[in-house]
Amino acid sequence: MDLGTGTDIVVVGSVNLDQVIEVGTLPVPGETVQGGPIIRLGGGKGANQAVAAARLGRSVAFVGAVGTDADSAELRRELAAEGVDVSRLAAVDGPPGHAVVLVDRQAENCVVVSPGANSALDAGSVRAAGALLESAPVVLAQLEIPMPPVLAAARLARGTFVLNPAPVPAAGLPTELWPLVDVLVPNRTELARLCGVPDSAVRDAAEVARLAAGLPCPRVVVTLGADGALVRENGRCELVAAPAVRAVDTTGAGDTFCGALAVGLAEGLALVEAARFAVRAAALSVERTGARTAMPTRARLAGER
Fold this sequence. Notes:
single chain; alpha/beta; UDP-N-acetylmuramoyl-L-alanine:D-glutamate ligase; 6-stranded parallel sheet; 22% strand
């Protein structure tokens, strides 16, 4: 679909250096486990989602911050090499964000994030890119950056504002943000925290649908991992099943989903169809280690070699 010469998707979010360690089992509190070698990869929810969207053929611009060290320069170069416009990626004193990712034999993961330069992104930096955000069909944000730039992006967006509420703040989302969100994309854990219930309470699709219906956002897409996604819109829910794949590392699946969903929406797909497109992309993304390594291109998603 030809969307003209403007930027299709603007991502406002984080850039991290991921340090991935494969382990036999994820440690419990107080436990030490043996891990494999450290694999250094570009990451951050915002950067990952921007790469996912760019690989699927849309023009993507990024608003965020990295540091001034060699790692930051490499992170900038990697994004640019993926075709992402990094002209609004600020350089601030100090290191970039870092994430330590543990991945077990079942492809489950846990992540610890140190924000680094991401914490320096402010509302003024987002407002400086106001013309870009106002003209984009889709603006996509996450919560690995401070809340003021997220609010600024939501207020400036004239197209569809998509929020991946990850991680959910301890106090929940600000009251003033809810009416600005066009599409909310939590996973099960984030849904539970937004609704103030234990993670263990969110097990089956019926409970996911019930909780999604209670959120003050009319369009919600809950990612369900291997079970696909549940879409709530206009008071109705639909479960979108995921294709069967051999999972190696699920670290980037949610980011791939969000980037692909933004692509579908930018191309004019209905929300359910955009979620169906995103589920297929996310399923392909878990077949290799690393958040970005297996993010599919448009040709791969179409089944081409």
